[in-house]
Amino acid sequence: QSLPQQKLLTWLSVLECVEVFAEMGTARVWGEMGRWTIIVLIQLAKAILRLLLLLWYKAGIQTSPPIVPLNREQQQPLHAQDMEDNSSGKDQTYVGRRSSRVVRSLQSTPSLQSRHWGSPQQREESQSRRAEEMNQPPTPLGLQETIAESIYITRPLLHLLSLGVWGQRSWKPWLLSAVLDISSLSLLSDLKDLNRRERAELRRRTILLLYYLLRSPFYDRYSEGRILLLLRLLADYVPGVGFVTRPLMDYLPAWQKIYFYNWG
């Protein structure tokens, strides 16, 4: 990735990290007008950055978060003692004569902080495989797939525009957003030879369609009573589950009012 593309990904990641805090803080300081203003500005900035990545830098299907968090356990380099043993030609493993079981030799045992419970070959293969997956180039998108990704990127802006036109209690913004999400996934379903990150992103988008059960006005008219009844039954009749479901019942109303939790 070029340096400008990395900067765009960094700014996009920062926006996704602070969007909920910005919405809640602005609502407390400047009220509802300030809240919706910051929502529109953040969604507009995210859409511009994503369209630049899609159309200018050919970034393909964009994942969320844009920068994959570093797994420090998987990315941990080999212990210094292991590297010294490799350079000196020492054997890191011992193969049992009768069982053929591969175990680490005592000379190459690392310290407790960096120890792992697998053979060095397995660790090296795992690290090389993950590095190869992370470095795979994005799958080239044709015209249909580019349109589908553009629909997904601009859907939040169209939803906000429809909210301004028809109001928050109307079904039209909810239906418009659902149609756009389903259309984008349908157009992307024909794309073959996706890498691992892109397949995971499409699965995530498919699962997020369940959020439409928690989005107003569907939640206010149909889902709220059924979800709260189910959580109450679980809390009353399943031992131990109440520690999770009762706080969840108290938190749902506040969670449902925050735009970026529901629609962001």
UniProtKB/TrEMBL annotation:
<dbReference type="Pfam" id="PF08610">
    <property type="entry name" value="Pex16"/>
</dbReference>
<comment type="similarity">
    <text>Belongs to the peroxin-16 family.</text>
</comment>
<keyword id="KW-0576">Peroxisome</keyword>
<dbReference type="GO" id="GO:0007031">
    <property type="term" value="P:peroxisome organization"/>
</dbReference>
<feature type="region of interest" description="Disordered">
    <location>
        <begin position="74"/>
        <end position="140"/>
    </location>
</feature>
<dbReference type="InterPro" id="IPR013919">
    <property type="entry name" value="Pex16"/>
</dbReference>
<protein>
    <recommendedName>
        <fullName>Peroxisomal membrane protein PEX16</fullName>
    </recommendedName>
</protein>
<dbReference type="GO" id="GO:0005778">
    <property type="term" value="C:peroxisomal membrane"/>
</dbReference>
<keyword id="KW-0962">Peroxisome biogenesis</keyword>
<feature type="compositionally biased region" description="Basic and acidic residues">
    <location>
        <begin position="122"/>
        <end position="133"/>
    </location>
</feature>
<feature type="compositionally biased region" description="Polar residues">
    <location>
        <begin position="106"/>
        <end position="116"/>
    </location>
</feature>
